[in-house]
Design brief:
Strand content: 15-25%
Largest sheet: 5 strands, parallel
Number of strands: 5
CATH architecture: 3-Layer(aba) Sandwich
Radius of gyration: 13 Å
Low-confidence stretches: none
Number of helices: 4
Distance between the termini: 23 Å
Number of domains: 1
CATH topology: Rossmann fold
CATH class: Alpha Beta
Length: 121
């Protein structure tokens, strides 16, 4: 079970994503504050809304404070340019908020394994 923080999502989207994560046996927490303070919560993984343009600049700030914390950017509009921008800013992965449970599980396992390997290096 991983501690996963959902950052920047509206209540409805956060609830949908949280339910999928809980069904995969993960603990979730909604975070609406400044991303600079997110690292202090020591999450195993962060889901960051790709729909809130103001938060995209915060991804680099978050990664500078918690480089080993995987960040998956999730957006209502999956767009190649947004996907590329998220990865260039340090995201581990990018997906639609409507991602199906099997793909979500695969992304989580990959992101969390990447964190373990990065911590061992």
């Amino acid at each position: 079970m991983a501690k996963i923080i959902l950052a920047g999502f509206d209540a409805e989207t956060a609830e949908k994503l949280s339910q999928k994560l809980v069904n995969l046996h993960h603990q979730t927490e909604l975070f609406l504050g400044d991303l600079r303070y997110l690292a202090a919560r020591r999450p195993d993984l962060v889901f960051l809304s790709g729909d809130d343009v103001r938060r995209q600049g915060g991804l680099a700030s978050l990664k500078s404070k918690a480089a080993d914390t995987p960040v998956i950017v999730a957006s209502r509009a999956v767009d190649d340019s947004l996907w590329l921008a998220a990865l260039e800013a340090g995201a581990t992965d990018y997906c639609s908020v409507d991602v199906d449970p099997a793909n979500l599980d695969w992304m989580l396992k990959n992101a969390l394994e990447t964190r373990v390997f990065a911590g061992a290096a």
